[in-house]
Amino acid sequence: MKFSISITTLALALTASASPISETQPAAEKKAAAAISGSGTPGSIFMFGSAANCRQIFYDFGACGLSTFFADKVPASMPLVAIPSGIFDRFGEAQDNSLCAKVITMTHNGVTRQAIVADENTSSEQSIDMCLDLWQAFGGHDGDGSLITNFSWSIAA
User: Which interval of the chain is the signal sequence (predicted)?
Assistant: First the structure.
């Protein structure tokens, strides 16, 4: 009889350990479950000159680690951006950030463009940092490092 009780106990223990445990979802994942948006955010240029070189820097060295952790999720045709650290940091750290590799839609003065979140911008301006192709699409000029003000933006879940 003791033997059958031990087997029953073992079977119950294995069943319980294999059952899914209802845990609360991490805060970073909860926040990314819904789209987020903002307005009045400035835009800045990350690097003058070649948009391709700028994109490669974001891709290889940005906080999200796109080249390592998201290589198959980032279309080569999409521009890359760094979002303000005040926004980025609320959704996790580095490549574990739930905003990494997500599409951000940005609008300024009736011009709308999309890009992929690749990095965080830790500057005091707390701006969306972009490469020359996006910068020019929004009215910026190569060699002009002033901020473009009042972007509205959203990042889909």
Answer: 1-18
